[in-house]
Amino acid sequence: MFSPVLLLLCYHAQAQVENDGIMMKKKQWCNGATYMYTGWDHYWEGKLKRNNQNVGTFTSQSVMYMTNYGITDNLNVLANLPYVWTKMTGGTLHKLDGFQDVSVAVKWRPISFNIGKGKLSLFAVGSFSTPVTNYVIDFQPLSIGMGSTNVTGRITADYQHGIFFATASGAYVWRGNVKYDRTAYYDTELHLTNEVQMPNMFISNLFIGVRVKNLVAQATLENMITPGGFDIRRNDMPSVNNKMNSTNVGVHAKYTLPFFTHVEILGGGSYTVAGRNVGQALMLHAGAYYIFSFK
Amino acid sequence: MKKIGLLFFVTVAGLITLPVACKKSIADRTANIPALVSDNLDLTAGTWKPVLLYRADTFPVATPAATNTSGYIADLNEIKAYQHNITVDQKEKIKYWAAGAVLRWNEIMRELVAKYNLPPYQKDDGTYPIPSSANPFAYPQFPFSNPPYASRAYAYVSAAQYDALIACWFYKTKYNRAAPYKVDSSVQAIGINKTDLPAYPSEAAVLAGVTVEMLKLLFPTEIANVQQKLQEQELAAIMSGTAARSDITAGEALGRQVAQQFAARGRTDNTSKAVGTPADWTNFETVATANGEIPWFSLEVPKRNPMLPFFGNVKPFLFDSLTAVSLRPGPPPLTHSDQMKQETEEVYNYIKNPDRNQIKIVQFWADGVGTYTPPGHWDAIAAEDFIRKNYSEVRWARNMALVNMSLMDAGIVCWNTKYYYFNPRPTQMNPSIKTLTGIPNFPAYISGHSTFSGAAAEILSYLIPENAAKYQAMAQEASLSRIVGGIHYRSDCSVGLQVGKNIGDYAVQRAQTDGGN
């Protein structure tokens, strides 16, 4: 009766800076904008990969403002806010756009020491995000976000040896309940309430690459696991509380202009190689940061 | 160094455990409602007018044993044994069912409708498989409980429950055997309110029997689950001290017998012919085109066969089939007319830049795939208001039957109209009309939401007059939601509401004369 469609969540669209092994120095203030593109024409309905001519190709584009300030060399505060546009080439459903969720994070590097010829640093990141507008969440995948208020705890280890480095990071995302516009919904049973319990998530990242004078270049691996949640049934609509898992591989690079070191430009992309209740997405991003230094 | 390491560990542990410790659980609105208290036991309900039964005593129920016989004393001992060892979990089950069994079975029905309300996935050749009641477990599972199917399912179950309880009340007052907690002071009333309602046959078991028997037909793959609910409900009635084993046995048998009569009607009410054939589907298009009209077509890819095109021939409950045809409204604006152009323009203007409140209204009333459908939504509205009215079970059943027969008959007349005119959707008239909910896979005129809502609001306004303004406002909003969602024209909705109201009036007439006032 209605066109079954599907979402892909934009966790990959979070600022790279939350999970990398790099800090702003004391009194450095970074400001910038990143453009992100996500597109897919296949998705996993539960474990079954399929396409859907009533979706065609789904695309989400966003422009995110990002800021990062160095309170000390080892303690940074970060914030970001994206504006998101979604649409589908197939079917008849309406496109949407709007400001999504503001995120504020504290990134701390308590320990940094030499091991052999390399240097190991540990980081702890705590972040909080919440919607800044009351966007509709029950119109997936065209809804611009999931609507939940999240608290994320992350630990990161970064090891650098010469120009080579590896960063491993793991995060637990606690997601608060959300509310639908309707008064009842079915997932694996009927719920006579508008409140939806959101399953929490584990997200882990691995970066391997090089850091030279003006350039950081890395290969990326991201794995997202939702231990709870449920599968989209055959030909059903997606829900915010689905079990969403994905594995993405990609590349990312950041270049500091040699003649004007206040400016960094960055770009990269990734692709979903495995998933469950998510789109098989191609994701691209590009941005520029300007760093002020207060002496 | 060590200190920092410890601090690091504590911070990380805190970040992870603090939010996890916060409460996330959610509760259904009806999870903790109190046990039913009937303001009026409706002891004359045995004289109310049934829907299908010829008489309240069409099916005989044997005279119960006297309360001083050994058989009944054994029944009482069974209750005492259960009560002696009752567990917390068993008390929870009693509490659940004590809130009202018509309510609980309606909620279970709504869950089944939502579970089975999924359109089949297409075959390789681009056509769609049709669910088959002869092979219900194979994909696509039977049924596809779309809105017309659901309206009929709710109506059959509600009407059968009502007739079964009329028979139940007839025998209750005829035999007048008291509840176990009245007969023996050492039997407690656990989790329920004591009443003077005679216990034989048990209304809980009548409801369980009649409902399970109907659901066998309507949701055949769920037999094991609903049979388990029946056992749970009957055991709860015994453990609570409300019913003896013999009250239950007689009640369940009566319920199942009444259901057979409704099942027989269901097998011959034309539903089995509602799907039609590919030749039928093409013919609608040919007729509309020959009349110079732009015909409806499916906006799904690949094009899906139209939803139950002959549901309009199903036998209604509140009037005969000829009356159903006479309730069909006049034609929609011609597809080439200025009015059609204006109405398409109105939809486009709504949908161009939707605001959040508009989206909210569309979502609130969407009741699309995977939901309990618009009839289920109106059942939810009705049930949550009935909870506050302190009805007896038989009045609950009567009022739900009136609501659900209105909804089914609204579905019949609406579907009859849709396929009679075969009118296109706004997106066909202007492809730049993008929608805020899926476009239903059937012709536009008249709006199903509007017809269902007009009918439900009319009968509910009669049953609970103090809420009339609220029901009318809800019906208006449900109807409007389809225009501002981009899937219906103004005419579909205004005419749909009026047709629905006319159908609801048949239910009002019935309510005025069924003896239940």
What's the order of the H and E elements of chain A? EEEEEEEEEEEEEEEEEEE
* Strand residue content of chain B: under 5%
Biggest β-sheet: strands ordered side by side in the sheet of chain A: 1-4-5-7-8-9-10-15-16-17-18-19
Please state the oligomeric state of the protein chains shown: heterodimer
Shape of chain A: elongated
Q: Terminal Cα separation of chain B, in Å?
A: 83 Å
Major β-sheet profile of chain B: none
Query: What is the H/E order of chain B?
Result: HHHHHHHHHHHHHHHHHHH
Mean pLDDT of chain A: 92
DSSP strand count of chain A = 19
Radius of gyration of chain A: 20 Å
Strand tally of chain B = 0
Explained architecture:
The complex is a heterodimer of chains A (295) and B (517). Chain A is mostly beta strands and 295 residues long. Helix content of chain A is 0%, strand content 59%. Chain A is built from no helices and 19 strands. Chain A has strands spanning 28-40, 42-45, 48-51, 58-72, 75-88, 96-99, 101-115, 118-131, 150-161, 164-175, 178-179, 185-186, 190-191, 195-196, 201-211, 215-225, 245-256, 263-276, 282-293. A twelve-stranded antiparallel beta barrel of chain A has the order 1-4-5-7-8-9-10-15-16-17-18-19. In chain A, strand 4 and strand 5 (75-88) form a beta hairpin. The termini of chain A are far apart. The relative contact order of chain A is 0.20. Chain B is an all-alpha fold and 517 residues long. Helices cover 58% and strands 0% of the residues of chain B. Chain B has 19 helices and no strands. Chain B has helices at residues 2-21, 70-84, 88-98, 101-116, 147-175, 180-183, 203-218, 223-239, 245-267, 278-290, 321-326, 338-352, 356-366, 373-386, 393-421, 426-429, 448-463, 468-484, 490-513. In chain B, helix 5 (147-175) packs antiparallel against helix 7 and helix 13 crosses helix 18. The longest helix of chain B has 29 residues, at 147-175. The radius of gyration of chain B is 26 Å and the shape is elongated. The model of chain B has no long low-confidence stretch (mean pLDDT 96). The chains are: A mainly beta (295), B mainly alpha (517). The interface between A and B is large, with 55 and 65 residues.
